[in-house]
Amino acid sequence: MLTDRQMLILQVIVDSYIQSAEPVGSRSISKNEDINYSAATIRNDMADLEELGYLEKPHTSSGRIPSEKGYRHYVDHLLLPHHLSEEELQNMKALFTKNIVEVEQIIKESATILSDLTSYASIVLGPEIFESKLKQVQIIPLSEQVAVAILVTNTGHVENHTVTMPSTLNSSDVEKIVNILNERLVGVPLYQLEEAIQKEVAGVLRQHIKSYKDALIFAEETLQKTKQEKVFYGGKSNLLIQPEFHDINKVKELLEVFEEDETIFDLLKPEQDGLSIRIGQENGNEAFEDCTVISATYSYKGKPVGTIGIVGPTRMEYPRVIGIVDHLSKGISQALTNLYR
Amino acid sequence: MLTDRQMLILQVIVDSYIQSAEPVGSRSISKNEDINYSAATIRNDMADLEELGYLEKPHTSSGRIPSEKGYRHYVDHLLLPHHLSEEELQNMKALFTKNIVEVEQIIKESATILSDLTSYASIVLGPEIFESKLKQVQIIPLSEQVAVAILVTNTGHVENHTVTMPSTLNSSDVEKIVNILNERLVGVPLYQLEEAIQKEVAGVLRQHIKSYKDALIFAEETLQKTKQEKVFYGGKSNLLIQPEFHDINKVKELLEVFEEDETIFDLLKPEQDGLSIRIGQENGNEAFEDCTVISATYSYKGKPVGTIGIVGPTRMEYPRVIGIVDHLSKGISQALTNLYR
DNA sequence: GTTAGCACTCTGCAATTTCGAGTGCTAAAT
DNA sequence: ATTTAGCACTCGAAATTGCAGAGTGCTAAC
User: Fold this and answer.
1) The CATH number of the domain where B67 resides is what?
2) Could you read off the pLDDT of B251-305 as tens digits, one per residue?
3) Which residue segment(s) compose the domain that A74 sits in?
4) Residue ending a domain, choose from A60, A78, A96
5) Which residues form the Winged helix-turn-helix transcription repressor HrcA DNA-binding domain (chains A, B) (predicted)?
């Protein structure tokens, strides 16, 4: 489809535009040491590239900038592997050599490291609870009617929420219920809990508790998982330094989206394991039409449990960011697996 | 010090500037129906007010804007009580008539309501754990060496973190330790825990556990309170619509500070109970020199346990925001007290 | 003490000009 | 058949100019 020279030119344009944020003209390309063609030749190729949709002109007589299609082609075919600098590696390593005992701590700090290293905004989705299994249930009464329900998972994750205790259940009933739940449901993945209550617990409850119906409702309330996902952010303000976000309204839209966890969750939700790059429209969200999101899943025991990601302008330092995100996601995976060997 | 007329003029200027964000000229003041003096008279008073430091001129020939001192005087002496609109009251009421069982839920939603209602950014500091007392300690082993420690307080707050178990302690040791902690420390305010460990627990541990030193360390680790403060935000992007924050760099500074929880904590830390208004420099933080922070503490059993606050430009709708913050903080106090009667 | 009047100042805006980078095309060169 | 040089043309960014309007400070009159 594209000639070698066109590819080369596309690559130089993307590299240059990523670096300078200025439209790239034919003359400046011809000065590039890898290129030995005259400006006029390059102009012809640029015109072709534009016709094919890889480049755009901000206005009639200016240099070209890459289109989304241009970036896409660059990412898919022209990307040179990037060697992380010693400093970058060091920074990431530091995260894992700390005395880590807390999963959430690693996750949180990953967000900070990501944004510091890349100078873009970072988003990290906490380990999905889907994969984790119930380890223990606890009910701790606070008053006559209110108690705290605590769910602990095998990954050390703790969920808690308050529950109301129906007046028809006395404290020995509650104790019984909790015992039953622990007996029957430990080891069940969190996402199957609801189902398991009906199958495994309902019958037993009926045998042992008088106010059977209230007991069942109470059990369900106890095991309700509260927050499905935790989202951590880093360096949101980095976005403001990008020249493409000098328009206050753009930024505002973007920051508003950042305040809605659900949208962000959708945005980072992995389609497949490993690295994902979504450019502009591909994000399927108007506020992100000028953004690229690079994300990668991290795993626990070989199964993806969470996502780390970077949000920046489409004009993003792809090679470097991809390197960092990839490296860090693998690091987290390994750290998690080491943690609960 | 100031004549009545000067006060009146200052008030009109502040009101007008708050509303329009435009410097206020003498002519437009003289048109105000409460004022029956000519523009020239007002000009004289304005010149005086400027000399006294209550007003400033952006440039030689323009209207005046209030200085920090001007706002301060306005807030201290000229503020007219503001009647909250039906809608505002309704919104806040809705928060409390919901079926609330979770303290953190109320706190979180307060942030959203505050920012929605005021169109400024809101910050809410979660109930300080200082005031709450230990209700129960739990250790749940995850593996040979790692366990989750769970602390429940009488306010339904749950803290959890992972701890490492020294290999010198076997599982029955751990059980003993936990029992001792529960026997001796329940009811102790969290902030006194460290002290109480030494006083109440150390001796008992020495009697019952062989590896006494490890046991003590383990106990300390278990009771370590992890996060002292939770901070919730709402409507940060609202700041962007204020004309004084059209300068990207200003905004960036501000948003950066918002990412440091400690600074924010200092900013909202109450000096005294009740309502606090800090204007510009009074915030003691360069990034906030053009901001006013209005905050109020909320209480549990008569003692302040947390803070809600609003960050906006110094040109803030003081009467309305003060009304809202005041009302909401009282509402939260009451809700908390009702919750654990 | 208050007001009217007037000269003066300064900003913001719009119209205009200039400058330079960049293009597209044609014709010559390889 | 490519590649290159040359040239006219386009367009945006930045600088320049010229108002119009809002506001002030001062003086003199009320």
Assistant:
1) 1.10.10.10
2) 899 999 998 888 898 888 877 788 999 999 999 999 999 999 999 999 887 888 8
3) 4-78
4) A78
5) 1-72
